[in-house]
Amino acid sequence: MSAQFVSDLYFALSRDRLEAYRSANGSDLEMLTNYFWNIDLIEALVPCLHAVELALRNSIHAALTTQYGTEMWFYQPGVLESSELIQLGKAFQYAARKPPLVAGKIVAALSFGFWLALLAGRYEQRLWQPNNFALQKIVFPHANRNSQQQISQRFETIAKLRNRCFHHEGIWYRTTLQQEHADIHQAIEWVSPTLQMAIQSVDNFSIVLAGRDQVKADLAQRFGLT
Cα(186)–Cα(200) distance, rounded to whole angstroms? Predict the structure, then answer.
């Protein structure tokens, strides 16, 4: 049964994809444990990835709405560079499919990458530096003494992990996952300690991270793998 099970999974998932989860000289059981544990890990990161993305975009949007006196701040001359204007145009087209067209729909249609771009160095003088980094203190009121560059780097690192997760790629081999998970929570806390505390109620990442042996045992029992 075990040989047929592995063969069936090669067909359904592709041999190349599964073999990428085989450690050096690892058995079929070890390979499949890594694969299915990886699915668990990605699922367990969804709550904090969800929270950090929403917290970032909503905090920036609220701050810039106040600064420019309009929810449509992104149309103010000189705010956005061409690459972000292109993304804005696509978001506008998407949001316009279901009237009425309001700022909230456009904001929701903008990618995580759009908001990350606003944190980048090319926007520092335009958005962040004026008035002794006043905007940073509004968007990230609990970031303490972290510099704009440190904040930007943190969110860039989070985005790289997020993209691996949402493109169904491997993260199981990363020895830094526990710290990366903690870093995401800290980034949420920079914006909203309340949200960071609330998201913990549905965040079981630590349990899943420690649960590889259970995945292995379940696979061995169900399919006779050794």
Answer: 12
Q: Please give the sequence-ordered ranges of beta strands (E in DSSP) within 82-185, or none if there are none.
A: none
Amino acid at 35: Y
Helix (H, G, I), strand (E, B) or coil at 131: helix
102 phi-psi bin (left φ>0, alpha ψ -120 to 50, beta other) = beta
Q: What is the pLDDT of residue 1?
A: 55
**What Cα–Cα distance (Å) separates residue 195 from each residue in 133, 152, 187?**
24, 20, 11
Please give the Cα distance from 85 to 90 (Å, whole number).
9
Q: Tokens at residue 208, please?
A: 């899943």
The closest alpha carbon to 58, from 6, 8, 15, 115, belongs to 115
pLDDT digits (tens, 9 = 90+) for 37-90: 999 999 999 999 999 999 999 999 999 999 999 999 999 999 999 999 999 999
Contacts of 135 (CB under 8 A, 6+ apart): 63, 64, 67, 127, 128
State pLDDT tens for residues 84-103. Answer: 999 999 999 999 999 999 99
35 vs 17: CA distance, rounded Å: 9
Tokens of 28: 């079929």
Q: Dihedral of CA 127/133/135/137: which sign?
A: positive
For residue 84 the two structure tokens come to: 């972000």
Q: What is the pTM of this model?
A: 0.95
Ordered by start, the domain boundaries in the chain are: 41-68+116-221
